[in-house]
Design goal:
Helix content: 25-40%
Number of domains: 3
Number of helices: 10
Order of helices and strands: HHHEEHEHEHEEEHEEEEEHEHEEEHEE
Strand content: 25-35%
CATH topology of the largest domain: D-Maltodextrin-Binding Protein, domain 2
CATH architecture of the largest domain: 3-Layer(aba) Sandwich
Strand order of the largest sheet: 4-3-5-16-6
CATH class of the largest domain: Alpha Beta
Distance between the termini: 36 Å
CATH superfamily of the largest domain: Periplasmic binding protein-like II
Structural class: alpha+beta
Oligomer: single chain
Number of strands: 18
Length: 324
Amino acid sequence: MHDLRLLAAFAQAARSGSFTVAAQILHCSPGAVSKNIARLEQEVGIRLFNRTTRRLSLTEEGSEFFYAVQRSLDELQRADDIVAAARDHVEGVVRLAVGGTFGKTHVLPALARLMERHRALNLEIAFSDDPGDLISRGYDLAVRCGAPQDSRIICRRLISLPLKLVASPGYVERTGLPSHPYDLFRRDCINVRHGDANCAWIFVPSTGAGTAAVRIDPPARVMILDHAEALVATALGGFGPTVIDAFTAHPHLDAGTLVELLPGWRVEASIEGGGDVYLVYPHRDYLPLRIRAVIDFLIDEFGSGGGRRIGPAEGYDKAAGLLS
């Protein structure tokens, strides 16, 4: 029987591809993780990782060993969770990434109620719009806008937020109001890049049946990468028109610091789920109780129904604690 500490260090390093990230999750030093894995390699008599100065990857034997170890660790976690559920006791650390204005102003305050309910639950929260790899960064789950294009993770829509085309009053005073989406081709727009693709804007007339939708690939002199709040800041700074969600736009529209453009047109994003808020997490056969508790809570808070809930959540059978 191998020491569980060695197996845990190995599994975390294998999932994240980094001794440093594994050390952060395990609350120890990268040197301690390296020593534990070296000791495990001595015990099993095989090399588990290929190590270079830039990259850490599993060997063929290490990959087979990892899947066997992960199944065993999942079963041990399941046993612990059975006991914890019987005692109605959720404990442990959940590493959560929260992105976008909605995440900071709605999701974050709601989490205080979750922690009050489960006094032994701890959260490590990163404020990030970066759609990068959850697994390599060591996050258990994330709340972010737009559907990530990664088949290795589970992606569930929490709410849908309509989009608006906006600009600063100063910009409107300098250039005038556009009367048609095609006028945007003559403007210096602000756009976002999702992965390798720039977002296109699709305008659908709110009235007038038979009028076709218009797709605009905006001529953007400013491109925002992985930071939703920077999009708002550049719009407020008068750089040009941009598309943001209505939730983020409303306080600025009410204050007069932003102006809605083309109100007779409904705006959609070409990026899948560009106006939606998603709950995403690595695909695992078994989710620990502490992670399921956070998922259930967020769906209760922001899923379908009344009260504080804003829109439909999809694909999760809360009663069974399973993904449908």
